[in-house]
Amino acid sequence: SRSKWPRGKGLVISNFRKEKEMQSTMSKMKQAAVSLLLVLSLLAALMAPAGAAFWQKPDPLQFNDDGSFTILQISDTQDTQYPTPNVLTLIEKAMDESKPDLVIFTGDQLKNYDSDFDGGNLKNKVQQAIDAIVRPVERRGIPFAVVYGNHDDAIGVSKEDQLKMYQRHSLCLMRDDEPELSGCGNYNLPILSSDGQRTAFNLYFIDSLGGGGSYYDYVKQDQIDWYVRTSNALKAANGGVPVPSMEFQHIPLPELRTVASEGLIHTGENNEGVSGPYYNSGLFQAMVQQGDMIAAFCGHNHTNTYIGTLDGVDLGFTPGAGFNEYGAAKERGVRVIELHESDLSTYDTHLLTFIGLLGDNPITQLRYRLFTVGELDSNNTMDMVKTVLSEIVDAVLYLVKTSHGNPVTIVRELLQFFGADVGYIEGFFH
Among 227, 172, 222, which Cα is nearest to 205's? Predict the structure, then answer.
Protein backbone atom coordinates (compact mmCIF):
# COMPACT_ATOMS: atom_id res chain seq x y z
CA SER A 1 0.00 0.00 0.00
CA ARG A 2 1.07 3.52 -0.58
CA SER A 3 2.31 5.68 2.26
CA LYS A 4 -0.02 8.43 3.46
CA TRP A 5 2.94 10.76 3.96
CA PRO A 6 3.21 13.52 1.35
CA ARG A 7 5.96 13.10 -1.18
CA GLY A 8 9.30 14.22 0.31
CA LYS A 9 8.10 14.12 3.97
CA GLY A 10 10.04 10.90 4.68
CA LEU A 11 13.21 12.51 3.36
CA VAL A 12 12.73 15.52 5.66
CA ILE A 13 12.25 13.29 8.73
CA SER A 14 15.25 11.20 7.76
CA ASN A 15 17.40 14.32 7.45
CA PHE A 16 16.05 15.62 10.77
CA ARG A 17 16.97 12.35 12.52
CA LYS A 18 20.43 12.38 10.98
CA GLU A 19 20.92 15.96 12.15
CA LYS A 20 19.84 15.05 15.71
CA GLU A 21 22.13 12.02 15.71
CA MET A 22 25.01 14.17 14.51
CA GLN A 23 24.32 16.75 17.22
CA SER A 24 24.25 13.98 19.83
CA THR A 25 27.53 12.56 18.49
CA MET A 26 29.14 16.01 18.52
CA SER A 27 27.95 16.57 22.10
CA LYS A 28 29.45 13.27 23.22
CA MET A 29 32.70 14.08 21.42
CA LYS A 30 32.78 17.47 23.14
CA GLN A 31 32.25 15.85 26.55
CA ALA A 32 35.00 13.34 25.81
CA ALA A 33 37.33 16.15 24.73
CA VAL A 34 36.62 18.08 27.94
CA SER A 35 37.30 14.93 29.96
CA LEU A 36 40.57 14.35 28.13
CA LEU A 37 41.58 17.99 28.60
CA LEU A 38 40.79 17.75 32.30
CA VAL A 39 42.91 14.60 32.62
CA LEU A 40 45.86 16.07 30.73
CA SER A 41 45.69 19.35 32.63
CA LEU A 42 45.60 17.59 35.97
CA LEU A 43 48.52 15.38 35.02
CA ALA A 44 50.54 18.38 33.91
CA ALA A 45 49.77 20.21 37.15
CA LEU A 46 50.58 17.20 39.29
CA MET A 47 53.91 16.62 37.55
CA ALA A 48 55.01 20.26 37.80
CA PRO A 49 58.06 20.67 40.06
CA ALA A 50 57.49 22.33 43.42
CA GLY A 51 57.18 26.07 43.11
CA ALA A 52 57.83 25.98 39.37
CA ALA A 53 55.18 28.56 38.47
CA PHE A 54 54.57 30.19 41.81
CA TRP A 55 57.48 32.50 42.47
CA GLN A 56 55.47 35.45 43.63
CA LYS A 57 56.25 37.60 46.63
CA PRO A 58 53.30 37.63 49.04
CA ASP A 59 51.77 40.95 49.93
CA PRO A 60 51.64 41.93 53.62
CA LEU A 61 48.68 40.34 55.37
CA GLN A 62 45.78 42.77 55.37
CA PHE A 63 42.08 42.83 56.14
CA ASN A 64 39.92 42.79 53.03
CA ASP A 65 37.93 45.83 51.95
CA ASP A 66 34.85 44.41 53.68
CA GLY A 67 36.82 44.07 56.94
CA SER A 68 37.10 40.28 56.80
CA PHE A 69 40.14 38.04 57.21
CA THR A 70 39.86 34.25 57.09
CA ILE A 71 42.37 31.74 58.46
CA LEU A 72 42.36 28.02 57.68
CA GLN A 73 44.17 26.00 60.36
CA ILE A 74 45.41 22.55 59.30
CA SER A 75 46.95 20.33 61.94
CA ASP A 76 48.55 16.90 62.08
CA THR A 77 48.63 15.93 58.42
CA GLN A 78 51.32 13.52 59.63
CA ASP A 79 52.17 11.93 56.28
CA THR A 80 55.07 11.17 53.96
CA GLN A 81 56.28 11.85 50.43
CA TYR A 82 53.40 9.61 49.34
CA PRO A 83 50.47 11.31 51.10
CA THR A 84 47.10 9.63 51.20
CA PRO A 85 44.63 10.99 48.62
CA ASN A 86 42.22 11.73 51.45
CA VAL A 87 44.43 14.31 53.16
CA LEU A 88 45.11 16.08 49.87
CA THR A 89 41.43 16.23 48.96
CA LEU A 90 40.49 17.42 52.45
CA ILE A 91 42.98 20.30 52.21
CA GLU A 92 41.97 21.19 48.66
CA LYS A 93 38.22 21.15 49.25
CA ALA A 94 38.55 23.00 52.55
CA MET A 95 40.39 25.84 50.82
CA ASP A 96 37.90 25.97 47.98
CA GLU A 97 35.06 26.09 50.52
CA SER A 98 36.51 28.66 52.95
CA LYS A 99 38.52 30.88 50.56
CA PRO A 100 41.13 31.67 53.25
CA ASP A 101 43.46 34.65 53.28
CA LEU A 102 46.04 32.60 55.20
CA VAL A 103 46.64 28.88 55.77
CA ILE A 104 48.37 27.82 59.00
CA PHE A 105 49.90 24.38 59.45
CA THR A 106 50.13 23.72 63.17
CA GLY A 107 52.63 20.90 63.40
CA ASP A 108 53.22 17.22 62.78
CA GLN A 109 53.21 17.73 59.06
CA LEU A 110 55.52 14.68 58.88
CA LYS A 111 55.10 11.12 60.12
CA ASN A 112 58.65 10.46 61.27
CA TYR A 113 58.04 6.79 62.13
CA ASP A 114 56.67 5.77 58.72
CA SER A 115 58.63 3.22 56.66
CA ASP A 116 58.32 5.52 53.63
CA PHE A 117 61.20 7.49 55.14
CA ASP A 118 63.47 4.43 55.43
CA GLY A 119 66.30 3.57 53.05
CA GLY A 120 68.40 6.73 52.72
CA ASN A 121 67.94 10.09 50.95
CA LEU A 122 65.92 11.31 53.93
CA LYS A 123 66.30 15.00 53.12
CA ASN A 124 64.92 14.50 49.62
CA LYS A 125 62.00 12.51 50.98
CA VAL A 126 61.20 15.16 53.60
CA GLN A 127 61.33 17.86 50.92
CA GLN A 128 58.91 15.87 48.78
CA ALA A 129 56.57 15.35 51.73
CA ILE A 130 56.57 19.08 52.52
CA ASP A 131 56.03 19.96 48.86
CA ALA A 132 53.04 17.61 48.66
CA ILE A 133 50.98 19.35 51.35
CA VAL A 134 52.11 22.88 50.46
CA ARG A 135 51.56 22.63 46.70
CA PRO A 136 47.72 22.81 46.79
CA VAL A 137 47.94 25.95 48.94
CA GLU A 138 50.46 27.67 46.70
CA ARG A 139 48.53 26.77 43.55
CA ARG A 140 45.70 28.90 44.86
CA GLY A 141 48.00 31.83 45.59
CA ILE A 142 47.39 31.66 49.35
CA PRO A 143 50.21 32.55 51.75
CA PHE A 144 50.89 30.05 54.50
CA ALA A 145 52.53 29.88 57.92
CA VAL A 146 53.96 26.86 59.75
CA VAL A 147 54.86 25.71 63.25
CA TYR A 148 56.56 22.44 64.11
CA GLY A 149 55.20 19.48 66.04
CA ASN A 150 56.92 16.77 68.04
CA HIS A 151 57.01 14.39 65.04
CA ASP A 152 58.63 17.05 62.86
CA ASP A 153 61.13 17.47 65.69
CA ALA A 154 61.98 13.75 65.59
CA ILE A 155 62.27 13.09 61.85
CA GLY A 156 66.07 13.18 61.67
CA VAL A 157 66.25 16.34 59.53
CA SER A 158 66.87 19.50 61.56
CA LYS A 159 64.05 21.99 61.89
CA GLU A 160 66.40 24.61 60.49
CA ASP A 161 66.77 22.52 57.34
CA GLN A 162 63.03 21.94 57.20
CA LEU A 163 62.53 25.72 57.40
CA LYS A 164 64.65 26.11 54.27
CA MET A 165 62.48 23.48 52.58
CA TYR A 166 59.31 25.40 53.37
CA GLN A 167 60.93 28.64 52.29
CA ARG A 168 61.60 27.22 48.85
CA HIS A 169 57.95 28.08 48.35
CA SER A 170 57.61 31.79 47.77
CA LEU A 171 54.31 32.12 49.64
CA CYS A 172 55.80 30.71 52.84
CA LEU A 173 55.65 33.27 55.65
CA MET A 174 57.41 31.09 58.23
CA ARG A 175 60.54 32.63 59.73
CA ASP A 176 62.91 32.10 62.62
CA ASP A 177 63.18 35.68 63.85
CA GLU A 178 65.72 35.03 66.60
CA PRO A 179 67.68 31.82 65.90
CA GLU A 180 69.27 31.99 69.35
CA LEU A 181 65.87 31.31 70.94
CA SER A 182 64.86 27.81 71.98
CA GLY A 183 63.30 25.85 69.12
CA CYS A 184 62.95 27.04 65.56
CA GLY A 185 60.19 29.14 64.03
CA ASN A 186 59.24 31.61 66.77
CA TYR A 187 57.81 34.57 64.85
CA ASN A 188 54.81 36.86 64.47
CA LEU A 189 52.76 38.06 61.50
CA PRO A 190 50.95 41.42 61.75
CA ILE A 191 47.70 41.88 59.84
CA LEU A 192 47.22 45.39 58.54
CA SER A 193 43.94 47.27 58.68
CA SER A 194 41.86 47.31 55.51
CA ASP A 195 43.22 50.76 54.67
CA GLY A 196 46.77 49.54 55.22
CA GLN A 197 47.57 52.30 57.70
CA ARG A 198 48.17 50.34 60.90
CA THR A 199 48.60 46.92 62.47
CA ALA A 200 45.06 45.89 63.36
CA PHE A 201 45.74 42.33 64.50
CA ASN A 202 48.70 40.07 65.17
CA LEU A 203 49.45 36.35 64.94
CA TYR A 204 52.09 34.64 67.10
CA PHE A 205 53.74 31.33 66.18
CA ILE A 206 55.72 29.44 68.82
CA ASP A 207 57.69 26.22 68.56
CA SER A 208 56.27 24.01 71.33
CA LEU A 209 59.32 21.74 70.99
CA GLY A 210 59.36 17.94 71.12
CA GLY A 211 58.79 14.94 73.29
CA GLY A 212 56.09 12.35 73.59
CA GLY A 213 54.76 9.53 75.73
CA SER A 214 55.31 10.28 79.40
CA TYR A 215 57.54 13.31 78.73
CA TYR A 216 56.87 16.41 76.70
CA ASP A 217 59.13 19.41 76.51
CA TYR A 218 57.72 22.83 77.35
CA VAL A 219 57.93 26.37 75.99
CA LYS A 220 61.08 27.94 77.42
CA GLN A 221 61.53 31.24 79.23
CA ASP A 222 63.46 32.84 76.37
CA GLN A 223 60.49 32.16 74.06
CA ILE A 224 58.12 33.72 76.58
CA ASP A 225 60.42 36.72 76.91
CA TRP A 226 60.39 37.08 73.11
CA TYR A 227 56.59 37.06 73.09
CA VAL A 228 56.44 39.74 75.80
CA ARG A 229 59.00 41.94 73.98
CA THR A 230 57.10 41.64 70.70
CA SER A 231 53.77 42.31 72.38
CA ASN A 232 55.17 45.41 74.10
CA ALA A 233 56.66 46.72 70.85
CA LEU A 234 53.34 46.34 69.05
CA LYS A 235 51.56 48.01 71.96
CA ALA A 236 53.95 50.96 71.90
CA ALA A 237 53.46 51.40 68.15
CA ASN A 238 49.69 51.29 68.70
CA GLY A 239 49.57 54.28 71.04
CA GLY A 240 49.89 52.21 74.20
CA VAL A 241 46.93 49.97 73.36
CA PRO A 242 47.55 46.18 73.13
CA VAL A 243 47.14 44.83 69.59
CA PRO A 244 44.50 42.03 69.55
CA SER A 245 46.27 38.75 68.82
CA MET A 246 46.04 34.99 68.40
CA GLU A 247 48.73 32.40 69.09
CA PHE A 248 49.36 29.06 67.38
CA GLN A 249 51.50 26.14 68.52
CA HIS A 250 51.37 22.37 68.22
CA ILE A 251 51.47 20.82 71.69
CA PRO A 252 48.67 22.08 73.96
CA LEU A 253 49.23 24.48 76.81
CA PRO A 254 48.79 22.88 80.28
CA GLU A 255 45.81 25.18 80.82
CA LEU A 256 43.78 23.14 78.35
CA ARG A 257 43.55 20.52 81.10
CA THR A 258 42.10 23.19 83.36
CA VAL A 259 39.57 24.15 80.71
CA ALA A 260 38.39 20.51 80.54
CA SER A 261 38.51 19.68 84.25
CA GLU A 262 36.71 22.84 85.37
CA GLY A 263 33.89 22.56 82.86
CA LEU A 264 34.88 25.63 80.87
CA ILE A 265 34.37 24.06 77.44
CA HIS A 266 31.76 25.94 75.41
CA THR A 267 32.37 24.61 71.89
CA GLY A 268 33.37 21.25 70.42
CA GLU A 269 34.15 17.83 71.86
CA ASN A 270 36.53 16.52 74.50
CA ASN A 271 37.36 13.03 73.22
CA GLU A 272 40.76 12.33 74.79
CA GLY A 273 43.03 13.48 77.57
CA VAL A 274 45.42 16.37 76.96
CA SER A 275 48.86 15.11 75.91
CA GLY A 276 51.49 17.66 76.76
CA PRO A 277 53.83 18.96 79.44
CA TYR A 278 52.77 18.96 83.07
CA TYR A 279 55.38 21.57 83.92
CA ASN A 280 53.86 25.00 83.46
CA SER A 281 56.50 27.46 82.26
CA GLY A 282 54.15 30.45 82.34
CA LEU A 283 53.33 31.25 78.71
CA PHE A 284 49.60 31.46 79.37
CA GLN A 285 50.10 33.66 82.42
CA ALA A 286 52.18 36.00 80.25
CA MET A 287 49.35 36.12 77.70
CA VAL A 288 46.85 37.11 80.38
CA GLN A 289 49.20 39.75 81.77
CA GLN A 290 49.90 41.26 78.35
CA GLY A 291 46.18 41.60 77.68
CA ASP A 292 46.47 41.17 73.93
CA MET A 293 45.56 37.53 73.38
CA ILE A 294 41.97 36.68 72.44
CA ALA A 295 42.64 33.00 71.58
CA ALA A 296 45.35 30.35 71.30
CA PHE A 297 44.92 27.24 69.15
CA CYS A 298 46.87 23.99 69.00
CA GLY A 299 46.67 20.51 67.48
CA HIS A 300 48.37 17.31 68.66
CA ASN A 301 45.38 15.52 70.24
CA HIS A 302 43.80 14.40 66.98
CA THR A 303 40.23 13.84 68.19
CA ASN A 304 39.77 16.87 70.43
CA THR A 305 37.86 19.81 68.96
CA TYR A 306 36.91 21.80 72.04
CA ILE A 307 37.33 25.46 72.88
CA GLY A 308 37.03 26.89 76.38
CA THR A 309 37.64 30.27 77.96
CA LEU A 310 40.03 30.80 80.87
CA ASP A 311 40.83 34.24 82.29
CA GLY A 312 39.31 35.88 79.23
CA VAL A 313 41.38 33.92 76.69
CA ASP A 314 39.95 31.18 74.45
CA LEU A 315 42.03 27.99 74.35
CA GLY A 316 41.18 25.49 71.64
CA PHE A 317 42.05 22.31 69.78
CA THR A 318 41.91 21.72 66.04
CA PRO A 319 41.45 18.04 65.07
CA GLY A 320 43.89 16.03 63.01
CA ALA A 321 43.58 16.29 59.24
CA GLY A 322 45.67 13.22 58.45
CA PHE A 323 44.58 9.70 57.48
CA ASN A 324 47.95 8.02 57.98
CA GLU A 325 47.48 8.16 61.76
CA TYR A 326 44.78 7.76 64.40
CA GLY A 327 41.91 10.19 64.12
CA ALA A 328 38.22 10.95 64.48
CA ALA A 329 37.10 8.62 61.67
CA LYS A 330 35.43 10.58 58.86
CA GLU A 331 35.19 13.62 61.15
CA ARG A 332 38.86 14.40 60.55
CA GLY A 333 38.96 18.03 59.63
CA VAL A 334 40.36 21.56 59.71
CA ARG A 335 39.39 24.78 61.46
CA VAL A 336 38.17 27.99 59.82
CA ILE A 337 38.74 31.17 61.85
CA GLU A 338 37.03 34.37 60.68
CA LEU A 339 38.18 37.75 61.95
CA HIS A 340 36.12 40.93 61.56
CA GLU A 341 37.90 44.27 61.65
CA SER A 342 34.85 45.96 63.18
CA ASP A 343 35.23 43.91 66.40
CA LEU A 344 38.60 42.25 67.01
CA SER A 345 37.76 41.27 70.56
CA THR A 346 36.08 38.18 69.16
CA TYR A 347 35.99 35.89 66.10
CA ASP A 348 33.89 33.20 64.43
CA THR A 349 35.07 29.64 63.95
CA HIS A 350 33.82 26.33 62.63
CA LEU A 351 35.20 23.00 61.44
CA LEU A 352 35.21 21.59 57.93
CA THR A 353 35.28 17.80 58.01
CA PHE A 354 36.09 15.09 55.50
CA ILE A 355 32.56 13.71 55.45
CA GLY A 356 31.03 17.18 55.51
CA LEU A 357 32.97 18.26 52.44
CA LEU A 358 32.67 15.01 50.47
CA GLY A 359 29.25 13.87 51.64
CA ASP A 360 28.08 10.69 53.33
CA ASN A 361 27.91 8.43 50.28
CA PRO A 362 29.39 5.15 48.98
CA ILE A 363 32.31 6.90 47.22
CA THR A 364 33.35 8.64 50.44
CA GLN A 365 33.08 5.33 52.31
CA LEU A 366 35.27 3.54 49.76
CA ARG A 367 37.85 6.32 49.85
CA TYR A 368 37.93 6.15 53.60
CA ARG A 369 38.30 2.36 53.54
CA LEU A 370 41.12 2.27 51.00
CA PHE A 371 43.14 5.34 51.99
CA THR A 372 42.98 5.42 55.79
CA VAL A 373 45.58 3.63 57.88
CA GLY A 374 44.19 0.59 59.67
CA GLU A 375 40.88 0.43 57.78
CA LEU A 376 41.99 -2.61 55.76
CA ASP A 377 43.26 -4.45 58.82
CA SER A 378 41.30 -7.57 59.64
CA ASN A 379 41.75 -10.95 61.28
CA ASN A 380 39.79 -12.46 58.42
CA THR A 381 41.24 -11.58 55.01
CA MET A 382 38.36 -13.08 53.05
CA ASP A 383 35.78 -11.08 54.99
CA MET A 384 37.72 -7.88 54.29
CA VAL A 385 37.98 -8.72 50.58
CA LYS A 386 34.21 -9.26 50.45
CA THR A 387 33.65 -5.97 52.26
CA VAL A 388 35.89 -4.03 49.89
CA LEU A 389 34.34 -5.61 46.78
CA SER A 390 30.87 -4.83 48.07
CA GLU A 391 31.85 -1.21 48.72
CA ILE A 392 33.41 -0.93 45.25
CA VAL A 393 30.14 -2.11 43.68
CA ASP A 394 28.15 0.35 45.80
CA ALA A 395 30.50 3.21 44.81
CA VAL A 396 30.31 2.37 41.09
CA LEU A 397 26.52 2.14 41.13
CA TYR A 398 26.32 5.43 43.01
CA LEU A 399 28.64 7.13 40.50
CA VAL A 400 26.66 5.82 37.54
CA LYS A 401 23.41 7.02 39.12
CA THR A 402 24.60 10.49 40.14
CA SER A 403 26.65 11.22 37.01
CA HIS A 404 23.79 10.36 34.62
CA GLY A 405 26.45 8.92 32.31
CA ASN A 406 28.18 12.29 31.90
CA PRO A 407 31.83 11.40 31.13
CA VAL A 408 33.12 14.74 32.51
CA THR A 409 31.48 14.04 35.87
CA ILE A 410 32.81 10.47 35.92
CA VAL A 411 36.37 11.53 35.08
CA ARG A 412 36.21 14.31 37.67
CA GLU A 413 35.08 11.93 40.41
CA LEU A 414 37.69 9.31 39.53
CA LEU A 415 40.51 11.85 39.53
CA GLN A 416 39.35 13.35 42.81
CA PHE A 417 39.09 9.85 44.27
CA PHE A 418 42.83 9.42 43.83
CA GLY A 419 43.70 12.84 45.22
CA ALA A 420 44.01 14.91 42.04
CA ASP A 421 43.48 18.64 42.60
CA VAL A 422 40.28 18.95 40.59
CA GLY A 423 39.15 22.16 42.28
CA TYR A 424 42.30 24.00 41.26
CA ILE A 425 42.04 22.94 37.62
CA GLU A 426 38.37 23.87 37.41
CA GLY A 427 39.11 27.23 39.00
CA PHE A 428 41.98 27.76 36.56
CA PHE A 429 39.69 27.27 33.56
CA HIS A 430 37.07 29.59 35.01
Answer: 227
What does the pLDDT look like over 175-208, one tens digit per residue?
A: 998 999 999 999 999 999 999 999 999 999 999 9
Residue of 269, 328, 248, 275 lying closest to 150 (CA atoms) = 275
Strands 102-106 and 348-353, bridge-based pairing: unpaired
- C-alpha gyration radius of the chain: 26
Distance from C-alpha of 353 to C-alpha of 334, rounded to nearest angstrom: 7
DSSP output for 276-308:
S-SS--SHHHHHHHHT-EEEEEE-SSTT---EE
Pick left, alpha or beta for residue 3 (phi over 0 → left; psi -120 to 50 → alpha; otherwise beta): beta
Going along 162-319, which residue ranges are E strands? 187-192, 199-205, 211-212, 215-216, 245-248, 265-267, 293-298, 307-310, 313-317
Q: Given CA atoms 168, 172, 174, 175 in this order, what sign does their dihedral have?
A: positive
End-to-end CA distance of the chain: 59
Q: Own/partner pairs for 8-15, CB < 8 Å, 24+ apart?
A: none
Torsion-angle region of 329 (φ positive above 0: left; ψ -120 to 50: alpha; else: beta):
left
Neighbours of 150 (CB within 10 A): 22
- What are 122-137's pLDDT values in tens digits? 999 999 999 999 999 9
Q: What angle do CA 181, 184, 189 make, to 5 degrees?
A: 90
